[in-house]
Amino acid sequence: MGATAEELLEFLIDSARYGDTDDVKVAIQEKAAVDGQDSAGRTALHMACANGHVDIVLLLLEAGASPDVKNADGNTPLHWACLNGQTEAVKALLAKGASAAVLNNAGRTPVDEAISRDFTAILETINSCNTGAGIEVEVEEVEPDAAAAGSSAAAAAAADDADMEEDMEQALEEQQQAAAGGGGSSAAAELAASAQKQLNL
């Protein structure tokens, strides 16, 4: 290509970012620095992992790219793969020994990034590998019968409340009629007031 080392690196990183596998192969053949970093500390592997270009991830790893190079924020390619939900890239990195417990500048691991986005598949992938991260994923599932039972119980409770209110209203009406018929009996009036108070609770 006749390009400088800097130009080759830029070409490699851009090709990895946009998923141009053929250009990545050319850059590697031209001896581009596979672990070379741009001004933000990003490598071609960072770009490929973030965007889910697994074929390029594999090419770079086979060419000797390190899975643990950090960018300016302390993020490794695995941080970016986890943050963007790129499960296959995560698998490829872990197979090459990438650490799921390494901290970035914010004190977060790749595992933390996956948890923050609720990427269960990635957590399960990390958990299935012997990475030393100590992650165990538990996915809570609600059985259909249990959900139906809960719904039925709620409906029954609502029906009971409605029946209770109806009974109280009827009792109030009867007590008010009794009070009127009894010449303003104080006992009946007290009963009516009590019923009204309970109804308003």
What does this structure look like?
By secondary structure, the protein is mainly alpha-helical. It contains ten helices and no strands. α1 (5-18) runs parallel beside α3 (44-50) and α4 packs parallel to α6 (87-95). The longest helix is centred in the last third of the chain and has 38 residues, at 144-181. It is globular, with a radius of gyration of 34 Å. The protein starts with a helix and ends with a helix.
First-last Cα distance: 84 Å
Q: Would you report the number of β strands?
A: 0
Which stretches of 5+ consecutive residues score pLDDT under 50? 139-166, 194-201
Number of helices: 10
Give the overall form. Answer: globular
Strand content: under 5%
Query: What would you report as the Rg, rounded to the nearest angstrom?
Result: 34 Å
Write the layout of secondary structure elements.
Layout: H1 5-18, H2 21-29, H3 44-50, H4 54-62, H5 77-83, H6 87-95, H7 110-116, H8 120-128, H9 144-181, H10 186-199
Helix pairs in contact: 1-2, 1-3, 2-4, 3-4, 3-5, 4-6, 5-6, 5-7, 6-8, 9-10
What's this model, at a glance?
GO terms for molecular function: ubiquitin-protein transferase activity. The chain is mostly helical and 201 residues long. It contains 10 helices and no strands.
